[in-house]
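Running log. JK asked me to keep both predictions on one page so they can be read side by side. First protein, sequence followed by its tokens:
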Amino acid sequence: VFPQGRLRRRLRPSPREQAAFLQVSSGGLVSRPFRARPRIRDPRVPESHTTVVKAAISSYRKAIDEGLLLKLPFTTIFEYLQLLQLVSTAMNCLEHHGMFYCAAAVSDFYVPWESMAKHKIQSAGGPLNMQLNQVPKMLFILRNHWAPSAFCVSFKLETDPDILIQKAEAALRKYGMNVVVANELANYKDVVVMVTSTGKTTVSRRSKEDDLEEQLIGLLVKMHSDHAKQSNPDQET
């Protein structure tokens, strides 16, 4: 018969369960008893994962305590662009020793502040038409005005592999970046292409246990060091 006490579930009942409930509620018996879905238990984290997470949290807290990491939270595109300007102009004094790793996926469109509704939009007014403006491209301003001597790295993500490198090379020329990291959405965790004015370098993850970012950052650090040495040959980086 229909299992008692199991009608209230977080998951939607299957068609078979619904038919059984209707049959029981009408005074009949379920012709084919079914097995209720097992309850989802709390997931257990493997010990190896726990060790890795603890080490990452310890390194994170150590960086904050030593003043090596400054968190600047933001929510809106307005806050992000304002913080980008403040940070960039503050780092301008570092000249070639400064490095910008612009990996944020900034929205392509936004609603201008003056166009935002001041009060709750009423549904009685009928269909809603919204016009979005393009978010201004700030990489060019960062490179040419806010911190012109810094080492700048930006990212280009595409879903079409046929245009990925072309778009990355165009961004390199248009915004004056030192490096554009090109990645495809389908395999962005496994392979990236570092596009520079002198060529392209493919970085692939060695194994499932390795992080692609570790290899990428190592190469970028070396490129930044070379950039600083070439700009200031008599100074140490």
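And the second, directly underneath as requested:
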Amino acid sequence: MNESRKSNIWLYAVILFTSAFIVLLFAGYSQIKMNRSLEDYKSQVFDSESEKNKHLQNFYSAQEMNEKLNNDISMLEEDNRNLKEEKSLLESKSSALQEELDNRSEANEHFAAALASYLNGDFLETIELLKDVEVEYLEPKVVKTCRLLESRTKTEAGQLLFDEGFTLYEQAEYEEAAKRFLSSIEIAPAEVYSDKCLYYLAYAQMRSGNTSSAVVHMSRLAEDYPDSKYLKRAKQFVTRYKK
């Protein structure tokens, strides 16, 4: 009886220890499996974070590249605008220079034509040609020559017109004579013959029926030429015919 009881106790003990070992073994296996699952999860989380960081890094790199490209484009556009402005400025300067050269050439041509006319003795034509000369486009020395030519031409043209007018006056061609005298006094109002020109102009106008203009020119003689030998007669004329 006692032997049988002891055997049962040992059997229960073996079963108990075996069950406990199995439980411990199962618990250890479960812990290992859980640890592995945790490691896998951590690895997945780490990989996911790494991938996110990689994407973020790529995004920021692309954004920086876009900003750099935009800056480069802006710089190129600014350079292009500056080049266009410089080109426009150069074209404007070139156009202005060409215009300046054309004006100088034209002024020299007109002056040369006037000089040739003067040398040919055509003083009236010379006066007309000199009107076309834009002296601001001539060289300073040429301007001085042009002024001298203009002065001499007017003196000689005025004298020529006065002589023609006087000849016509003596021929009783009073209307034509008045035209010559008037042109002479307009071209050369300060010559030694200018007072005489006005005197005969007034008489030519009066004798061609234009007394009012005659009085105007005789009055001018009295005012502008106080030392003229015609002064007394001019005043008498004005007193007599002025209305």
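Observation for JK regarding the second prediction: Residues 30 and 154 are 131 Å apart (CA to CA).
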